[in-house]
Amino acid sequence: MRTLPRAVGLGLMVWALLSLACGLLPRLGLEAPPTLPPTPSADLHSTLSVLQTQITQLQATSRPEMATLPPSSRAVETSLPPVTGQAVALGPLRLDVPAELALQVDVETVPAVSAAEAFDPWEVAPAHWRARLWGYPIIEHFYEPWIWVYPAHDYMQMNAEAERTIQTLEVFLNQPLQLNSPEDLPHPVFASMAARVFAAHVQRLDFSVGSGIRVITYYAEDITPIENSALLYEFQGLSADGAWYIVATLPLNHPGLPAADVGVPDLNDPNADWSRYYAAVTAFLERQPAISFTPPLASLDATFRTLRVMR
Question: Reading across the β-sheet that carries 210-220, which strands appear in turn?
Fold first, then answer.
């Protein structure tokens, strides 16, 4: 069972230092996933199991928007901006990245890492492709803007966590799924050591050769206030033939965070109701229009709708 996130002032400083030292996501070669704040103290840890049990019921009752998403449903957008940016080739796939998201996109092939070669389990992966977006509208953030394309079958055979993630994604895309908890969503390998604190604006995105989901989310290892510094737009998709798995981590901001009408529990209070706090933040973000986020959700969505097979 993954624990819920916590961040105190010192923890946030540690986050920043660690992100500068080794990077949350791979920069040069394959690196470990984000190093997040330390695990809870013993007395606090004793309350987390109770909170974990409560969060499913609380979010199910307070978040009717996370109900059933039929597999045939398509994203509801009044208008989508045209994507007039550069075409980016990631192995067999191509997508268009608009100028408002990147002035330059660097693509590289990442060599395979076997279980015998890996220092940590999350490093195990077949050869794949990744793209780094430069000139992204958010600079100071815990995450960097990356897009990856993996050969799905090879990834599942080599990495058990990837197998669970891709299988969950397949179920989500092919039959209705009742979301009672953020952890019902496929949990990407890069966040294997952290919990998905919340999931807002969950939406299916279809593209010409497959489909996927996008979600506004937040990962951490301990209880923590929700801040713009780690708010994330996440996309996970599969080609229709199941051959290619796409995952993207794109920094996101909202001017309403920290939400003025959502009280942050006292980190020193062992009886603080963090599950209710996360549900309140989720509800707040759900009420915000897509254009109020930076970058706008429509621009991010439109980018992944351009995914296609190279000719």
Answer: 104-110, 128-134, 146-151, 244-251, 232-239, 210-220, 195-207
pTM: 0.74
pLDDT per position as a tens digit, 169-199: 999 998 776 778 889 999 999 998 899 999 9
> Would you tell me how many other CB atoms lie within 10 Å of the CB of residue 139?
8
Instruction: State the Cα–Cα distance between residues 141 and 228, nearest whole angstrom.
Output: 8
- Say how far apart CA 230 and CA 51 lie, in whole Å: 22
What would the pLDDT profile of 88-147 be if each residue is shown by its tens digit?
A: 999 999 999 999 999 999 999 999 999 999 888 889 999 999 999 999 999 989 999 999
Do you find a cis peptide bond into 126, omega within 30 degrees of 0?
A: no
DSSP 294: B
The tokens describing 223, both together, are 């209880």
Q: What amino acid occupies position 231?
A: L
DSSP symbol at 71: T
Q: How many helical (H) and strand (E) elements, i.e. helices and strands, does the chain have?
A: 6, 12
Closest by CA to 19, choosing from 142, 110, 181, is 142
What single letter denotes the amino acid at residue 193? Answer: M
252 vs 160: CA distance, rounded Å:
29
Domain residue limits at 300 = 5-309
Domain count, the chain: 1
